[in-house]
Amino acid sequence: MSTSQGSSHLVPIEKSTYYHGFLPREDVKMVLKTNGEFLIRISEPRKGEPRSHILSVFHNQPPNIDEETWIKHFVIKCNENKVFIEKNAFPSIQELVDHHLKTKDSVKDDVFLIKALPRQSWELDHENIEIIKKLGEGAFGEVSMGKLKFRKGGKTVNVAIKQAKLSNLTKDQIKEFMGEARIMRQFGHPHVVRFYGVAATTEPLYMVMELATNGALDSYLKKNPDLSIEKKNEMILQAAWGLEYLHSKPVMHRDIAARNCLYGDGRVKISDFGLTRHGIAYQADPHKKAPIRWLAVEVIRQRLFSLKSDVWAYAIMSWEIYNNGIEPYPGMMVAEVAQKVLTGYRMELPAELNQEIKNLIARAWAENENERPSMAEIAMELQRITGTVRPDFVAMEAQIKKELIMANNLTHKSHARKNKGAKAKMPKGM
C-alpha cells in the first residue's frame, strides 16, 4: 500500500520520507508552512518516560495570529501491536497516515492530513555517512573524520562529524546540539565552516560539516611559526570577512578565538557555534563560566554580549595570529587578566606589524564599545591596507546553497528507488 506521499508499510518508519526522527519542536515550527502539512518525529526525552512517535500537523483554521497554536502535536499510542491516535487502530504508522490521507478522515476535530513534508536537504541519512577515524572530543561527544555521500549523483566529500549519543545528554544538551545545527544551516560563506546537515532519524545524532585540511587555526599557527607577516595579514582579513558575514544576519558568535576557527585550503573558517545567538545583544548568565582572555570589558563586568564584544574578541584573535597561536596574556592567571583589562591594559603587537593595522586592532579593543569599528569597517580597512580585492561573497553564498540543495534534496522518486524491495518490518519500538 502506498500513497502519492510515498509512505508504505513495507518499509520501516525510519525509511519513510516524512519521518524526521529527533527533529525538535523549534525546527518543526520552521518547516511546516501550510494547513494539513505534516511529519512524523520522535518525542523529546523526558526522564523516566519511554519515547513515542509524534504526528505534527500545521493547522491554522480558522486563521489566528498566535503562531504558538499553529502546530498540533499528537502522540501515536501503541497497544497490542496496533497504533492509534484517538479512533481507529492500524498495524503500522504508515497505514495510519495512509488512511487519513486517502479517506480525508480528520485526525482530531477539524485537523486533517493533506501533504507529507519530506526530509529537507539538510536532514541527512545515516547510511550515507561513513565514520573513518576519531579526531577528538567535542562538547556533546566524539568528533570524527568521515565521508558523506550525496543523495543525488553519488558524489562523496570528506567531512567532520560531531556525534551526540542521546543517552549521555540532557534534554538541554540535545536542544543545544540541534540549536547549533539550526543556526549553521542558514550560513553559506567561504570563511565560515560549511554545514552539510544533521542526521537525526536514529541515534547517535550526527552534525556534518566540511573537513578543514589543516584543523584548528591555533594548532596550525603553532605548527607553522615561520608564516610571513603578509600571510598573517591575509588570515585576519579572512576572519574579518567571515565575522562580518555572521554579523550581517545578524548573529553574535560569542566565542571568537583561534581555537574556534579552522584552516584549510588557504582559508580561515569561523567554526564552533555552540554559544552563538541571533540578534545584536545578549545578556548571559553571570554565573556561567566564560573564556575571560577573549572577553570585552563590558562582558567581564556585566556578561553583556553584542556585535561589538565579538569585535573585541576578533582583536584578541588577531593578536593570537600574529603570535603563532599562543594563549593571550601569556604568564598571567585568569583573575589577573580580568583585573588588568578592566584597568586599561592591552597586549603588545609585533613591532614589524603595519602601523595602520596596529591602530585598527587598538580601536577594536577600545574600552568604550561605541568607539570600536564594525566588522564591515574592519574588513574594508584591511582590504585597503593590504590591497586585496573583495570577492563576490553574495554570488558565492548563492552557489554554496544551490550546490547543497541540488545534491541532497530528498525526492519521492529517489527515495522510492532506494527502498524498493525492502522487507516488511514493524516500526522500531512498536
From TrEMBL:
Residues 129-393 form the Protein kinase domain. One of its GO terms (molecular function) is ATP binding. ATP binds at K162. Keywords: ATP-binding, Kinase, Nucleotide-binding, SH2 domain, Transferase, Tyrosine-protein kinase. SMART domains: SH2 (SM00252), TyrKc (SM00219). It catalyses: L-tyrosyl-[protein] + ATP = O-phospho-L-tyrosyl-[protein] + ADP + H(+). It comes from the Eukaryota. Pfam families: PK_Tyr_Ser-Thr (PF07714), SH2 (PF00017). Its EC number is 2.7.10.2. Residues 18-117 form the SH2 domain. Belongs to the protein kinase superfamily. Tyr protein kinase family. This is Tyrosine-protein kinase.
